[in-house]
Design a protein that fits this description.
This protein is of the alpha+beta class and about 290 residues long. About 50% of the residues lie in helices and about 10% in strands. The protein has a five-stranded antiparallel β-sheet with strand order 1-5-4-3-2, with helices on one face. A two-stranded antiparallel ribbon has the order 6-7. The longest helix has 20 residues.
Length: about 290
């Protein structure tokens, strides 16, 4: 295995655990301390020393791994941008180095986002794990199985009724099939967007893709953190609780930190969901 050293602080394991189902591919699969997944190619990686002495041992394409795990993002520069916002600084310091993964495919980002629409995350991850287990791409790396979301041809062939058997509502199943068809026909956008609203308008032309789904998919595939799901309930409640101000005022502050708005939204939602989990479990730790 090769070694990659991200700039400190760096943390992503908490995100991976929050968006995975133990013992099942969703599509990340954990084998002891080793994560495997199939994106454009199979990847295997083990993360050590978070957040202050981070090291990633890996097998697979280094560029794809670095993109997926956002190892080129310097969290210290993010902290420096928050000096005038003490509450946001406190949030960022509470989760030093934490960031979400990045998807290397708009098609896969849209499929995953559609599944997550309007249902609890754990339910969505269970459906995604079932889809990946039954129809996803498979490979072996370092002797371990790795999984990825299905190719669009397989989803189109499976059809709406089969997707409904996994637990998807009809409108979601139809949206998944439509995204698969758009990918096959080359109708999914291939270019980067300079304007978020243009991007949202372009994606919401696809049947079954609403604003929340479009924003989440854009955020997941974007190289930086200028985009986030502004309509997400956990994001809104997290920001309001954190800042103690109205939603409109919170959006104004995000405008001042445009380059990092998506990461602030992610951390605020993460903290909000962890807080809910702690209350439900009498002080235990949850994740969002």
């Amino acid at each position: 295995m090769r070694l990659l050293r991200p700039p400190q602080p760096y943390a992503i394991s908490e995100h991976l655990r929050a968006f995975s189902v133990p013992g099942r591919p969703s599509p990340h699969l954990l084998h002891g301390n080793l994560w495997t997944v199939v994106l454009d190619s199979p990847l295997a990686f083990e993360i050590r020393g978070e957040p202050w002495k981070p090291r990633i041992l890996f097998e697979g394409d280094e560029e794809e791994l670095s993109t997926h795990l956002r190892t080129d993002f310097d969290y210290r520069e993010f902290l420096g941008s928050l000096e005038a916002f003490p509450r946001l600084m406190a949030l960022a310091e509470k989760y030093p180095g934490l960031r979400p993964t990045r998807c290397t495919s708009l098609y896969r980002a849209l499929i995953s986002s559609i599944i997550k629409q309007r249902i609890p995350l754990r339910v969505a991850l269970g459906i995604e794990a079932e889809l990946v287990s039954r129809m996803g791409r498979r490979a072996r790396i370092l002797g371990k199985p790795a999984y990825g979301l299905p190719e669009p041809e397989r989803l189109l062939e499976a059809g709406v009724e089969w997707l409904r058997s996994l637990g998807l509502f009809r409108l979601k199943a139809e949206a998944v099939v439509e995204v698969a068809r758009a990918e096959i026909e080359g109708r999914l956008p291939r270019r980067p967007w300079e304007d978020v609203e243009d991007a949202v308008r372009e994606l919401t032309r696809i049947r079954g893709v609403g604003r929340w789904t479009a924003e989440l998919a854009i955020a997941v595939v974007s190289p930086g953190f200028r985009v986030g799901p502004t309509t997400d309930l956990a994001v809104r409640r997290g920001l309001q609780r954190l800042l103690g101000i109205s939603e409109r005022e919170a959006v104004g502050i995000l405008g001042e930190l445009e380059e990092y708005a998506g990461l602030i939204m992610y951390l605020a939602a993460h903290d909000y969901e962890k807080g809910k989990g702690s209350k439900r479990r009498g002080g235990g730790q949850g994740h969002g």
